[in-house]
Amino acid sequence: MNVEEFRAGLRAWLDDNDLTPGPDHTLGGHMRQFARVSRALYAAGWMRYGWAEAVGGLGGPAVLRAIVGEEVVGRRLAEPGPYSMLEVLAPTMIDYAPAELAARMVPRLLSGAEHWCQGFSEPGSGSDLASLTTRAVADGDNWIVNGQKVWTSFAQFSTRCVLLTRTAPGHDGITAFFVDLDTPGITIRPLRTMHGVDEFCEVYYDDVVVPATRMLGRPGDGWRLAMDLLPYERSTCFWQRIAYLYARFDELIAQAREPDESALGAAYLALHMLRCRSRDTQHRLRDGERLGPDTSIDKVLLATAEQQLYDTVRDLLPGTLELDDTPWRPEYLYSRAATIYGGTAEIQRNIIARRLLDLGKE
Ligand SMILES: Cc1cc2nc3c(=O)[nH]c(=O)nc-3n(C[C@H](O)[C@H](O)[C@H](O)COP(=O)(O)OP(=O)(O)OC[C@H]3O[C@@H](n4cnc5c(N)ncnc54)[C@H](O)[C@@H]3O)c2cc1C
Asked: Residue ranges of the Acyl-CoA oxidase/dehydrogenase middle domain (predicted)?
């Protein structure tokens, strides 16, 4: 399908089908709104383009789903955070889950019937993810999981989790599972962030029984799965976040009483550079290229542009952004997390230095 025709058709459909969010601006409200939008777009077919027919899709290049994200999030019909989980977790399921499981589960995510989450980080394992200690021990046809995860975004709203566990020492001893979060032994405790939202959770696993059929890949494939997933978290899901940032940039211009053209120009340039880079990444994915450490560049550009935009908001709008009760405040505070989630800015620069520029370990 021609990309511009696709975009025009989608725009016309969105104009005709009012999916404007209601007045509930809580995180729960955002999750329900995302489910509502996904349901409507899936029923009309839009949410299925760019995904394989084997998992409920209608085929076509991945760039089609980037366009759906751009239009939906750019119009502020859904928030970029919840939306990004789709782009991060569905490709992993397609690549690693048994075909029957992916065929059964991925449509539930695409159609908004379920939310899923990503259980990688632990209290002692963030940047050094390979040190994770949540254990899975084989027991007949099951695995028994014990341990604790932290910063699991949207776990309290999720039905299932892509979970990394340790089944043996070392990088080759990490194994991934697709876990139903209503399994006995799982306790989910939301954590309040500094921007006042319970966005992520501590998740405790106490003797949780997971069927072996829920393993993603084979025992020991977990590190490879993580290395394949993280490039999505550091790139493709940004396309719709960029649309959101452009919309917020337009709003800043509308609200700034004394616009400083040089600050606005610098913020715009950072956004534009990010969008150019991201376009290139979307096209490489469309052409069937495997995404890898090069997506750390997208992540550094995203974090830089997002923080620069909100610094400019703080500088140009009247009042004290950190203290005033406006929608800009939580956004400004959340932008500080852009150099942390998906791997910190320091870790991205290490990857760029070592794996792209071949500068060695020191
Ligand atoms: C908004 C948000 C959402 C998140 N969602 C999820 C989620 O859904 N699922 C999930 O599993 N995790 C999630 N995370 C966790 C995230 O992946 C980790 O916070 C991140 O990987 C950093 O790990 P850490 O917090 O343990 O920090 P640490 O690894 O302890 O790092 C602390 C500081 O030390 C620096 N540092 C560490 N090692 C090095 C090094 N080798 N060289 C240079 N500097 C170094 C870091 O850059 C950082 O500044 C989320 C985080 C945030 C902020």
From this structure: 117-208
HSE-up (13 A, CA, CB side) for residue 250: 8
Residue-range domains of the chain with CATH: 3-114 (1.10.540), 117-221 (2.40.110.10), 231-357 (1.20.140.10)
Which of 341, 350, 351, 361 best tests ligand 1's pocket when mutated (most atoms within 8 Å of CB)? 341
Comparing CA positions, the residue from 216, 205, 209, 218 lying closest to residue 139 is 209
**pTM of the model as a whole:** 0.96
CA distance 1 to 271: 29
Amino acid letter at 255?
A: Q
**What does the angle CA 162 – CA 170 – CA 220 come to, to the nearest 5 degrees?**
45
Beta carbons of 162 and 210 less than 8 angstroms apart: no
CA distance 295 to 237: 11
Helix (H, G, I), strand (E, B) or coil at 129: helix
- Residue indicated by tokens 């376009």: 279
* Ligand 1 contact via 126 beta carbon (within 6 Å): yes
**What pLDDT digit, counting tens, does each position of 54-68 carry?**
999 999 999 999 999
